[in-house]
Amino acid sequence: MRSALIVGAGIGGLAAAIALRHADWEVQIVEQAATPRELGFALALAPNALAALDELGLRHVVVPRGVEVKTLEVRRADGRLLKRIVMSGAAVQSVVLLRPALHGALLEAVGPGVLQPGCRVTGVESGSSAAVVTADNQDLSRRTPADVVVGADGVGSVVRRALHPGEPPPRPSGYHALRGVSENVADRMGGADAVVYLGDGVEIGVARASASAVYWYISLLDGAVEADAAAALDRGLRGVHETPAGIIRAAAADAIRLDRLWLRAPLVTWGRGRVTLLGDAAHPVLPHTAQGAAQALEDAVALGLALRGGDIEAGLRRYEQVRAARTRRIIQSGPRIAAMTTTRSRARIALRDSLVRLTPARVLATTMTRLAADPHRALRG
User: Which of 22, 87, 128, 186 has the fewest CB atoms lying closer than 10 Å?
Assistant: First the structure.
């Protein structure tokens, strides 16, 4: 049986293990952390993410663990309603859930004996018939061969650095993000499942993530961010309506995370030989796209399809070609979206608010499914 070694046990790495096992591969995952965990608190799964989970056989497990977004509101920061969108029909448009719920479902599907935590990868080599990973585990260094190595080790990917040693470092995007979860405040959401507040240099989102928890984020311009999360929170909530402000301030200090957001240019080529990349290691995107987890899940499905049989290296290059074309557009869309949602430009704010107010709700609802068309048709032949 062909073997794959996956570096990283985040959403993308675990999903890739499931997809490759469906394609009759033997899979091993190595993870630097002593305990597998998913950074962050919650996430939104767009329709294309749900479609990928369906292909992995997990949609029916994951969806009940979150909250389906049936009613979405867009408001000004002062609370004035710009648009209310009600999703019609029984189809699930998107789901918001706590990250441990998705990560836990993936871990359960992977099962025991596959994941090796506390294993720090220090090097990757690709030969003509196998790839080799060098890793330190409990002060012992060892070399592990595999037919394929998948770098799913996030934005600071060791595998990416080995493949592209001359690549320039990430550059600042111009934005920071505050993200967190507030418990026991879901009753303050009123009749909406998710609300986006658009202000002067700030975008805020709040969404039900469970029966009692609300996931929230604040997008801020770099120049408006103070030294720590508490100060940045005060700045982000200045002049914001009391409802979202109250929800956000209910979060415990250890349930808030402040990140500077970075950009990387899309890679022309992802992998080499028997080594490839997946998820944020290949294509980090701004959170404004709401596509980080979705694209990692899509990568996993695509990798499984590309490696169902035949020449391994040809399959890897086909996977990369299809996924690079898809993810390049999403990488490039992030700064454009952020420039409209998080801006201090009077002209852009006026244009943004007018577009939201004047565009029919059914048209806005349709844009949420723009990525739902099958992205893997080229790999299904």
Answer: 128
